[in-house]
């Protein structure tokens, strides 16, 4: 590693839930950083972040801040990416963008390294990181698609509040405390901060993540539908999603129904296809009540799969349960993996 | 009402979560009770319940306790029903059983009054009340089946802890307080009290409700599958279920996918079919963020439906979201409705 090339790396949105995890992940794998450029809004500029035991000053995210930057990981919301990603690219950086700004742009590869690492080569300066709930699902789907073919996906999600950022985590804590004390909860963040109405998430379930589209699906649901087809290079794949926000802090869970191509596939075939895959941990031993949960998956980078069952009526239908930490594999870890794959090809 | 026949009514399991709600519901609709017989385990015998402002002594649930009883509502677990339901019937009572003991018995009607009230006439002394998660789903499905035909159902549930009784409600409270204080939660009730392993439910999601069957489905999932077909008299209906316990106290929610018979049905057709149906409230106005949630449905007897969408790939496919109070329409209220329908025919 002594002779390995080192990079100037910017992290945009470094004070946010995902930005913090990106620093943690880069530290953990000892990413070859020459200089770290922690960037955030004007409000946070001048404060410090700690990286590898040293304090590094946060600078304001503006075009000039990208001078000399070779890899820029964006995670500060779609509008910041739309304003600054091209500025970073113009200054010579490759952008790994963890917002929805460019994901469906046909000139931008949308990458989950376990699924379509080779798409990184098609980048024109920007590589998009998919939506959290999409990532964990396609990691589980890809080995099944490869082995058995895949023609249909119906998913219902169980998503944690950290997907809406640190303010939503605090809102769940505050509301939970209030309700346990018999008081009325106050809601101002969830389901969508910018929307008119807010509902309590504590001891509740909200069937709205992101805003509604004209077709009655939410934007989160459409992300899962469109991104899955793009990442898997299967535009004709039938995908349907229902996305629900729930009162837990970290990790998303998903109840997934799939139809494979053949009628002669067994539960054991599916288990074998998922076992020992990179990035996947099979936790499917019902005799011993082994299955993944949000709490058991928190803080881990893998995608956990359990509860694999064969549909009782449709011979090529299967059901399973997928859980992963939405801030890690769903965001920070996948972005850092993309950066790793990029420098391997550099 | 002055000349209406009055009945000797026993409530078995009167100290439990559902038993308490049965008393509330009977009081609320002024059920014609001549004498209330509150029954429970030996441990609770001698204590009192309050009914219509008066204290009534709880007696031990044993065969002789049913002497003179005309209607017996059982909600004390399957083993109590298996021991005592026939004893009650032998003594002249009609039993309305809210356990899984007799639901799939072909000589026992399984009744949701909005769907198959007429099946009450086929009873041989016992009428079964379906599982909570089944009831709310079939109430929403029946008007759609009648109008458009129905050939497929895939449901993922979001179920509250009160479905596991008062002890599970207390466990969620205790664990939530502990975790908010940074302490380790203790688990001894959920997912299934009698099972070897218990997992925290607070700020978590458990993909196990009831024990596992040989086919890898849980008993709760098989209840939804088998009971739906029986109630709707459609044994060939394709039904699949994934049941998940979540950290809220009351009401179950369900993400339901259906396929109707025709390809020319619209969202508006479904909304119209559900609007103004007895027992159903359509809460589906996405422009104003209107959809049901567990908190908004708590304490109400109706079944709430929202988030109706057309599948984007399958022309006869639709998705929607159903919420209802599991202790009311899912248990106590449906049992009391059966009792009402029974005395109307009496």
From TrEMBL, chains A, B:
Keywords: Amino-acid biosynthesis, Diaminopimelate biosynthesis, Lysine biosynthesis, Methionine biosynthesis, NADP, Oxidoreductase, Threonine biosynthesis. Homodimer. NADP(+) binds at residues 15-18, 43-44, 162-163, 326. Substrate binds at residues 159, 245. The keyword Repressor does not apply. It catalyses: L-aspartate 4-semialdehyde + phosphate + NADP(+) = 4-phospho-L-aspartate + NADPH + H(+). The lineage of its organism: Bacteria, Bacillati, Bacillota, Bacilli, Bacillales. InterPro entries: Asp-semialdehyde_DH_CS, Asp_semialdehyde_DH, Asp_semialdehyde_DH_beta, NAD(P)-bd_dom_sf, Semialdehyde_DH_NAD-bd, Semialdhyde_DH_dimer_dom. It comes from the Bacteria. The keyword Amino-acid biosynthesis applies. One of its GO terms (molecular function) is NAD binding. This is Aspartate-semialdehyde dehydrogenase. Belongs to the aspartate-semialdehyde dehydrogenase family. Residues 8-123 form the Semialdehyde dehydrogenase NAD-binding domain. Catalyzes the NADPH-dependent formation of L-aspartate-semialdehyde (L-ASA) by the reductive dephosphorylation of L-aspartyl-4-phosphate. Phosphate binds at residue 103. The active site is at residues 132, 252. It comes from Tenuibacillus multivorans. Its EC number is 1.2.1.11.
